[in-house]
Design brief:
The structure is a homodimer. Chain A has about 375 residues and is α+β, with helices and mostly antiparallel strands. Chain A folds into two domains: about 1-255, 4-Layer Sandwich (L-amino peptidase D-ALA esterase/amidase), CATH 3.60.70; about 265-380, Ubiquitin-like (UB roll) (Roll). Chain A is about 30% helix and about 25% strand. In chain A, helix 1 packs across helix 2, helix 2 (about 80-95) runs parallel beside helix 3 (about 120-130) and helix 7 (about 275-285) packs across helix 9 (about 300-310). Chains A and B meet through helix 8, helix 9, strand 13 and helix 10 of A and helix 8, helix 9, strand 13 and helix 10 of B. Chains A, B: InterPro entries: Arg_biosynth_ArgJ, ArgJ-like_dom_sf, ArgJ_beta_C. Chains A, B: One of its GO terms (cellular component) is cytoplasm. Chains A, B: It is an enzyme of class 2 (transferase). Chains A, B: One of its GO terms (molecular function) is L-glutamate N-acetyltransferase activity.
Amino acid sequence: MSVTAPLGFRAAGVDAGIKRGDDRDLALVVNDGPSRAAAGVFTRNRVKAAPVLWSAQVVSGGRVGAVVLNSGGANACTGPLGFQDTHATAEKVAEVLGDSAAEVAVCSTGLIGERLPMDALLAGVDVAAAQLSRDGGLAAADAIRTTDTVSKIAFRRGEGYMVGGMAKGAGMLAPALATMLCVLTTDAEIDSEDLDRVLRAATAVTFDRLDSDGCMSTNDTVLLLASGASGVRPDLADFEKVVTAVCADLARQLLVDAEGASKAIAIEVVGAESVEDAVTVGRAVSRSNLLKCAIHGEDPNWGRVVSAVGTTDAAFDPDRLNVAINGIWICRGGAAGDDRSKVDLRPRDVTITIDLSAGPHSATVHTTDLTAAYVHENSAYSS
Amino acid sequence: MSVTAPLGFRAAGVDAGIKRGDDRDLALVVNDGPSRAAAGVFTRNRVKAAPVLWSAQVVSGGRVGAVVLNSGGANACTGPLGFQDTHATAEKVAEVLGDSAAEVAVCSTGLIGERLPMDALLAGVDVAAAQLSRDGGLAAADAIRTTDTVSKIAFRRGEGYMVGGMAKGAGMLAPALATMLCVLTTDAEIDSEDLDRVLRAATAVTFDRLDSDGCMSTNDTVLLLASGASGVRPDLADFEKVVTAVCADLARQLLVDAEGASKAIAIEVVGAESVEDAVTVGRAVSRSNLLKCAIHGEDPNWGRVVSAVGTTDAAFDPDRLNVAINGIWICRGGAAGDDRSKVDLRPRDVTITIDLSAGPHSATVHTTDLTAAYVHENSAYSS
C-alpha cells in the first residue's frame, strides 16, 4: 500500500545502477491531483545536502507534483556541482512527466561527499516513469533502503480519506545511523498551510522523539503530499491524529530496524514541569552510551539513568527522582528502591520510567541499546 | 612519586576489603604543612555523590589537611544515610590524625546507588594512617583504580618547588566510563584563592577537553593541595604552566587507558571565531558515535565529521569547511578534497583537524574510538 494507498498517487521503484548489485535504488512518486498541496520538514543540521536545499525551496511554494528519491549516494558535501546534479534530476523528472521542475522534490541517501552517477540516475528516471503505477508503492519503498533490512510502509484510514507513507533509515528525524527519508501521501483535500501545521505537529511527537544514536544527518526529509482525490475535506484534528498514527507506525519500524540494536527502549518521562523538560530528559538519557550498553547487557543500572538526568537543566530535585525499569521502581527518592533483581530485562522491549516529581507533564523518547553489532556495522564500511 | 613527590605530603594505599579480592581500595593523602591551602573542582552533574557535596563544602573553606579516597563504591544516590557515611569517614580520619573533620576531603568511586561497607572502610582508615609515608604515593594511586588497567601518576618541577598528582578514571572532567578522581599536590607556598584560579585554568584546557563518551559522572573531583614546605612562593604564571603540564600528563594517561579504546583521537579545531566555538565543535565531533566507529574501522569518513560540525551553533559557512585526517585535507571547501586513500589510520594516535575558516581561535578536544570492547566492558558488568 505505502504511498499509493491513497487515491491520486502512482509510484515506481527501479534498479538504476546507482548502487552496486541488483537492488532497486531509484523511486518516483507522482501526485496526479486534482490538488498538489504539500508540506515538508527537513534536517536541522546546518550542513544540508543539495537535495535538502532544493526540496525545501520546492516545498516553500506549497506544491509538489512528484518526488524522486535515490539510495546509493547522499549528494551531501558535493558543492555547487552537487546542487546542479539535484537540479538536473528535477529537470529530468519534469521533462518526462511534462511538468515543472519547480514542483519536483528530490531526496537522496547514502555516502556523504561523493557525486552521484548522473548518467545512470537520469536513465533510471525514464525507466521509473514508464513503470509508474497505482501498485508501485512497495517497489518505491524498497528502492530507498540503504542499510534497512526491511521496507517500511504504513497507512491509516480517516473519515472518507486515506493516509499512506514509506520511510527508510533508523533514528530520529535529526538522526542517526543513516539518513531518514519519509514520504507521506493523502487523498484528503487540504491546503498546504494546514498540511504544514499537521506535519510539524505529527513529526514533533514521533520522528522527533526517536534518537537511536544522537547523530544528525545532512539529508533527513519528511514530505506530506495531498492529492485531494477523495474529495473529502477532513476535520483537522482528526487528520492530525491519522497522520500522527502513520508517522508513529513508521517511527516504530525505524526503531526496530536500527542498525545493530537488540533492544527497543522507551524512555518515559513523567512528573515534568513542562513537555520540553520531559523531552530534554528523555533525550539526555537516550544518548547515554553507558546506559545503552547496560541495557544491552540486561543490567538494570538505574545509576546511569540518574546520572544522565543530572546533566540536564530540567526542573527536578535529585532527592525526589524515581526510576522504574520495566515497571519495577528500583530508584525511589534518588536512592535505591525496590530489589533490582526483580527487573526482567530479557524482552526486546524495555521501558524506563523517570518520575521527576516536578509537575504534570510527560513525554516519551525512543532509543535502542548500544551493541558490538552497531560498532561493527558502522566501522566496517563507509556509509 | 605521585602525590608524595612534593615536600610535606605523606600517603598510603591499603586493601580495606571494600572491593572484592585483594586489590587496594582505600587511599589516604595527608598534608603536613606548614600550609594547608587547597582548591577543588567538582562534577557539574546536578546529581552529586555524597562525597562531592561534602568535599565541596570542605574546599570552600580554603583548607584541606587530608584526603581519603575509596574505590569499590561511589556513595552516589544513597540519600541522607550515604551523606552520613561520608561524614563518618571524615570524622574517622580526623580522629586518627588528631585533626578537624571540616578539613578532611572525601572521594569515592565505583557503583552508584549502593551504601559503602562502613565497618571495613573505617577499619581501613586505621590501617592506612599507620602506613602513611613519604613513599606512599604509588600505593595511593593504586588504591583508587577501578577499571583502570594502570596507576596514573605525574609530577613536574617548577623553580624551587614541585607539583605531583595521581588520577583514576577515563574521560573528561565531566566524564565518562568511570568517575575521574584526581589529587594534585605542591610544596609551593600559595594561598587558596590563587590555587583556585590556577586549578580552574589548568583543568579547563586539560581534563575539561577530554570527552571519551560524553557521559558525566556524579563523583568527579580534582583537588589541589599546597603544603608550602618548599618555602618558595612561585610566579603565578609559571605555577599555572607547571600545574597544567601535570594535568595534561594525567589527562593523556586517562585517555590512553579509556575502556575498550583502540585509538586516541585529537580533534583540533582551528579557524574558529572564538575558543568557545572551537571547544563546542570539538566536543560535538568527539560525541559522534558514527565517527568514533569509523575511526575504529580506520575509515577516514570526513562526512561524519562535517555532519557533526553541522549540529553546532558555532560560526562557520558549510562551503568553507576544511577537514584533514592525519594531515591529509580530504575535505576542502565543504566538499571532497585530497584523495582519501592517502590517509594512514593505522597508528593509535589520530588527529582530525577542522578548519572553520571563521576566525583566529583554536582548541583541541581529545576522545577515543568506539569499539566492541567498550560495549562489552560496559554491558558485561555493573559499574
